[in-house]
User: Fold this.
Amino acid sequence: MDIQIENADGVLTITLARPAKKNAITSAMYQTIADALGDAEEDKSVRAILIRGSEGNFSAGNDLEDFMKSPPKDEHAPVFQFLHRISTAQKPIVAAVSGVAVGVGVTLLLHCDLVYAADTAVLSLPFVQLGVCPEAASSLLLPRVAGYQIAAEKLLLGEPFDALEAHRIGIVNRVVPAAELDAFAAKQAAKLAALPASSLRVTKALMKQAGGVDVAARMAEEGQHFGAMLRSPEAREAFTAFFEKRKPDFRQFA
Assistant:
C-alpha cells in the first residue's frame, strides 16, 4: 500500500509509503488521504492526525508521470478533494518532515497545525520551474507566514532550502535530529490527543476562521491558472525536460 493508515490511542497516522519514488503522490494516493481525512472528521476516536513519510523522505510532491496521464479536470479530482479536506480539517494535524519535501510536500504543511522537521530535511517549491503556478493557497499563506520577500524568493526562484531556514521563516515549529523525528512528532500528536477534543476544535476554528474564505477562494483561483498553465508550451517544455533529465530551455517563449 502506498498509503498506510493507522488509528491508535486517539491519533490517526497517515504514512506516505512509496519510498522507491521518494513518496511522490499519485492520484490514487490523494484519494486515499482525502478519504482518511474525511473519515477522521466523523470518527470520535480520532483526536489528532499525524502525517509522515517513510524511509527517510517526506514527499517528492506530485508524481509527474501519473499527473500528466491523469491531470485534474475539475474540483472533484482527488488532489482537490485532498486540499479541501486538509484545509478545512477541524482536528489538529501534526506533520513530521524528513529528507525531501517538494511542491505539495511543502504546501500541505501550511495547513498543518504543528510541523516538525528533521535536521536533514530539504524543502523546495519548484512550481515556476515546471511552468505552472503554486497551489494549496500557498500564494496566499506563504506570504502571510514568511512575509512577501521571503515568499517571493521561495516561490519565484524555487531553490531548495534547509530545515533551519524553514524554521526561521515560520513553516516549521521545530527542527530535531533525524533519528528522533518520528518519535518526537508522535509524542506531540499524543499530547494533542490527550487534551479536550472540543477545546482543540474550537481553538483551531477560531484561529483559522478569519482566513477560511480567503483560502478557499485562492485555491479555486490557483486551480484555474494551474489547469490552464498545464497546457502551455512552457509547462510542456518543463515536463519534457524533466523526463529527459535535461535542463529546460524557456528562452524560446515570450
Q: What stands out?
A: The radius of gyration is 18 Å. The beta strands are 3-8, 11-16, 48-52, 93-97, 100-102, 114-118, 122-124, 161-162, 174-176.
